[in-house]
Amino acid sequence: MIIDCHTHIFPSRIAQKAAHDLVHLYGSSPVAGVTAAYLSEHMDHCGVDRSVILPVATTPDQVRSINTWILSLLSDCDRFIGLGAMHPDFNTVGDVETVGDELERLKKAGIRGVKLHPEFQFFYPDEDRMFRLYEAFIEHDMLAFFHAGGGGTWLKEIHGTPERFEAVLDSFPKMKVLAAHFGGYDCWVGVEKHLLGRDILFDTAYIFRSDDGTKYLPDDEIVRMVEAHGSDKILFGTDYPFRRQDIEIANLIKLDLDDSDKERILGENAAQVFGV
């Protein structure tokens, strides 16, 4: 089984605007369509069994509506695995329900985690206002799936650094954490110093060499870091629609790792994390 743990799609009514905004924010164009139908077709072509959909709420009032869309998406397609949206300031703008209520709604629907994006949502992972969220994640046994590191043309500083995630792990050792982009896009020296070997999951989204000129980890460095961190804590991810799933699968398969390590990364680990 192959599971892509890192994909982004949007409702059809806003797909065109979302694709335009992605080009503006990241300086590169999507390589495939940004709706559920396009992703499903892409999965068929690339031999991917399941894809994890990662929504991002850029404002707190988007949280519930995005999560409602995710729940409807999952009811229409059993090939998708959904994560919930959450925002650091959720329930501070007159909302009636609490973070716990929203997490319970997600959990009852079988969702096992939420996506947070320090750069889009303008927070430091180790700042005090995040602590109530982390306590709720632990209480409801939810994975905190973070964008980690840089990766945007608009960034003047990186909020989600390896040092800050290290502080989160120290303060909340019971929280399940995944730091995307192998612990921090273009922060891999810091990842090796502060996160490698810790009890934290990484994914492989946007770490392989590509013709688009973005930063990448050399293959031998990926192999060395996988062996140091443990292949049981690495999940395959592509950052679709920015990378093709078939190309990223080939990039993973060509690494000088044991077949058993590749199988864990390509799907076995994600199946365990997301209850597939």
Give an overview of the whole structure.
- 41% of the residues lie in helices and 11% in strands.
- It is α/β, with parallel strands linked by helices and 276 residues long.
- It has a six-stranded parallel β-sheet with strand order 4-5-6-7-8-9. It has a three-stranded parallel β-sheet with strand order 1-2-3.
- Helix 7 (162-171) runs parallel beside helix 8 (188-194).
- The longest helix is centred in the C-terminal third of the chain and has 16 residues, at 259-274.
- It is globular, with a radius of gyration of 17 Å.
Quick summary of this structure?
The chain has helices at 15-26, 36-46, 63-76, 99-108, 118-121, 131-139, 162-171, 188-194, 219-229, 245-253, 259-274, and strands spanning 3-7, 50-53, 80-82, 84-85, 113-116, 143-146, 177-179, 201-203, 234-235. By secondary structure, the protein is an alpha/beta fold.
